[in-house]
Structures are given as C-alpha cells and as structure tokens.
Design brief:
Length: 455
C-alpha cells in the first residue's frame, strides 16, 4: 500500500481527500501546516506528497523547497484554490511533479498520483542502474598519488571551475572527468564527451557547435552541437591537444562569452556549460611550437589534475587486477576466479606502457585463457604479449620509432582479433575503440582471416 501525505490547512479538504484516497487503497497521513509536514517527511516513509500552496505561516512553496532539500526523490504534487500560471511555473522550477487546481477533480487527482508514483519508481530504477554502471567506473587504487587525485576531485567537483586533466593514454582521465561531474551540482544534467583526436579537423567545428541546414555540402538538416547538448551540464573535451587552431579559437570565444554560433548560422546561442579537458600532450610545449593557443591553455588550466602512469603507482595494480578479474567473470558468465599473490607480484613489476587500459586487457586475456579457477600470469607469456617474454624480440626489430609503433599496434590488434575469434564488435569493445576505427586499422595493417581479403 502506497502512503500519501496530505498537507492542507482546511479540514474539509483533508476529509475529502481522505475519502478519495482511502477508497483507492492509499494509506493517508495528514499535516495541517508546514511545520507538521516537515516533521512527517523526516519521520515517515512516504511515496508522494499532496501540498497546498496557500497556508498560514510557512507556505507551500517554502515547504516544497525544504522537502526537496531533505528528500529530492520524493514526488510532490502542489494543490491550490488560487492557482496562477506564475505560481505553477515557480513550483515546477523548484521540483514539483505537478500542479492541480481546487476544487480537485477525482479522476485527474488519481491519474496524477499514479503518474507521480511511476515517475518515482522509474527514477529509483534509473539510480540503481547508474550505481551499477558507475561502480565499474570507480577510480580504484590505494597509492598516495591516487588518493591525492581523489582529494582534488572532492574539492573541485562542487564548483564550476574548469579542469585540465593530464596523463598518458590509458591512465583513466575520462574516469576523473566523470567523477567530477557525478559529484557536481550539475550531476543531473548531461555529461557530453567529445574525442577531439577522433574527429577530422574539417568536422570538429560542426561537432562542437552544430550547423544550420545547407551550411556546407552534406548538411541536409540542422544539427545541434555538443555545446548545446551539454547545456546545464558538463562538456568533456578529451585529447584537446589534437584540436585544430581554428576550432580552438571558437572554443575560447565560447568560454569567454558563454555563447556559441552554429556553422552557417548568424545567431549567438547562450550555453551554460562546465568544460573539463584532457590531454596526453604537454600543452605548454605545444604552445611554444605554435600547436596550441596560450590563451586557451590558461582558460582551461584553472584546476590542473595529473593522473600518474601505473609504473609510478604500482601499489594500485593488485587492487585493479582483483577488480578486473571479478568484472571479467561477471560480464562473460564465467565461474568466479581468483588470482595468486605471486601473479599479482609479477604483474606489479611490469611497466604497463598502456597503463590501466593495457592492464585491463591483459587481465581479460588471463581470465579467459586460464583453464583453472586460479588465474595464472604465465598465460600472458605463452600468448605473446609485448609486456611478457617476447618484448625483447619486438624491440630488436630495426626501423624508425614510428615503424616500431605501427608493427607493435598491428601485432597487438591481430592477437586481440584472434582472441575474440575475429568478432569485430567484441574486439573493438576490448580495445576501447569504435568499430569503424578498428576496420580502418585492420585495413592499414592488412589484417584478415585466412582465406579472406581486406576490402
């Protein structure tokens, strides 16, 4: 049975609502004024509140504000005999689920209550799903460097200060950005991510700011850009060091003015966006080379956060490995597996140039390829990973550094394709890249199954 709190200073209204709600199988509690209402909210489990606007002493709008502070998930339906559009708008802005005018229509009241309860149920389910997802996005580790990062996140998240996250590839810069958003006052608003390195230079402005229909060849309809999509929330500009200078100038203008202009448009659009940027490059050095604007760098670098590579925080490796083993078993429907202390020590000795991303992939290979309930690190050497015994063979191949990187990347992608039986979707997910990027790399390195040809 669902419990409804009726808050109204008129006894006739309370009696009328009691008859309607109890007949419809609701458990009903009553409060004659705001003070009683707040005591009931604090001391009882409630499913929904019916709250009168005009009451002596503390009025309904003030009660609504205090209820939202105490229990933001509790739906509140405002009722009033003197309802105006202005009052309804104000109540809605403050978080009221709906606004009903007196005299109350029985059918409309019951439909509104059912809608409010359904909304609360869906919100609760959404929160549970988000908690499950965010559990996989937790920043794990016990090293002083990670604890320092977490402390900075806690301090900066409630503010609107811009943050520049630096660190090598695979260190978890996106996790830091998401943690800041999750703990900010913008948490209920969108978190929009843009990978500046993955978008061609000629399309980055359209991606960020949107475009008007007909503004360029292929612009067959209006498009809303990432800045507008993130309005009220957080825009995460990943790999911003790879952004073109032309796009940098427009981003700088958007940060300075709080306004953007779509490609092909002539109207300035106000946006309220918190920008978090990340890069694996040294932007000060890029600035000296003319590759990154100094004024934009200073705009972004209000709060710098550096995420150290795994080789500088080896204490975190055992924590990460254990979490990854559990996650891989769960996602793949495998029986629960453990990992020996000796294997943990062995993994902690390695440098992991790909950092957490490389470690996660290695753990997934270990879990899947280890035949026993205890995961053994020895399967990595037999599998041929470059962090194992075959690393020296890779390093001994002559050629330029770029040629070495391409050979290593090609060999790694081929091994991953073989591991996932050439399933493109699963391989792309394991590599943390888009399917289209994987196809491009396969074509570049001539990777194909026996008997197949690269298109």
């Amino acid at each position: 049975m669902k419990t409804v709190l009726v808050v109204d200073d008129e006894k006739s209204v309370r009696d009328s609502l009691k008859m309607i709600l109890e007949y419809d199988k609701y458990d009903v509690l009553f409060a004659e004024n705001g003070e009683q209402a707040l005591k009931t909210v604090d001391g009882s489990y409630l499913d929904v509140v019916l709250l009168d606007v005009k009451m002596a002493g503390m009025d309904g709008i003030e009660v609504l504000q205090r209820v939202r502070e105490r229990k933001p998930e509790l739906p509140v339906v405002m009722i009033s005999g003197h309802g105006t559009i202005e009052t309804a708008v104000e109540a809605t802005k403050l978080g009221a689920f709906d606004f009903l005018s007196k005299p109350l229509d029985r059918d409309k009241l019951l439909v509104t209550l059912r809608n409010a309860l359904n909304h609360a149920r869906l919100t609760h389910e959404k929160q549970k799903l988000e908690e499950a997802v965010e559990g996989k996005r937790q920043i794990l580790g016990e090293s002083p460097k990670i604890k320092e990062v977490l402390a900075v996140i806690d301090r900066v998240a409630p503010t609107d200060a811009r943050v520049l996250i630096t660190g090598e590839n695979g260190t978890g810069k996106e996790l830091v950005a998401r943690a800041i958003h999750r703990k900010s006052k913008r948490a209920e608003k969108p978190f929009v991510e843009v990978n500046c390195a993955a978008i061609p230079a000629e399309l980055i402005e359209s991606e960020l700011f949107g475009h008007e229909k007909g503004s360029f060849t292929g612009a067959t309809s209006q498009r809303i850009g990432k800045f507008e999509q993130a309005d009220g929330g957080t825009l995460f500009l990943d790999e911003i060091g790879d952004m073109s200078l032309a796009a940098q100038a427009k981003v700088l203008r958007a940060l300075e003015e709080g306004k953007i202009e779509r490609v092909g448009g002539n109207k300035l659009i106000s946006v309220d966006v918190r920008v978090i940027a990340a890069t694996n490059k040294n932007l000060e050095a890029e600035n000296k080379k003319g590759g990154f604007r100094e004024d934009l760098y200073h705009r972004l670098n209000v709060i710098p956060i550096h995420v150290s590579p795994l080789r500088e925080r080896r204490d975190d490796i055992p924590v990460l490995v254990k979490a990854f083993v559990e996650d891989v078993c769960g996602r793949n429907g495998l029986a629960k597996k453990s990992i020996s202390e000796q294997s943990l020590l062995e993994l902690a000795k390695r440098d992991w140039p790909g950092n957490v991303r490389e470690l996660r992939n290695a753990v997934e290979r270990m879990v899947i390829l280890s035949p026993n309930a205890e995961v053994d690190v020895s399967v990595l050497s037999s599998f041929g990973t470059a962090t194992g015994s075959n690393a020296a063979d890779v390093l001994n191949i002559a050629g330029t550094f770029q040629e070495f990187k391409e050979r290593a990347e090609g060999a790694f992608i081929k091994k991953m394709l073989e591991l996932y039986k050439w399933n493109i979707s699963k391989t792309a997910e394991a590599l943390d890249i888009q399917r289209s990027h994987l196809y491009t790399k396969m074509k570049r390195y001539g990777l194909m199954r026996e008997g197949e040809e690269v298109e």
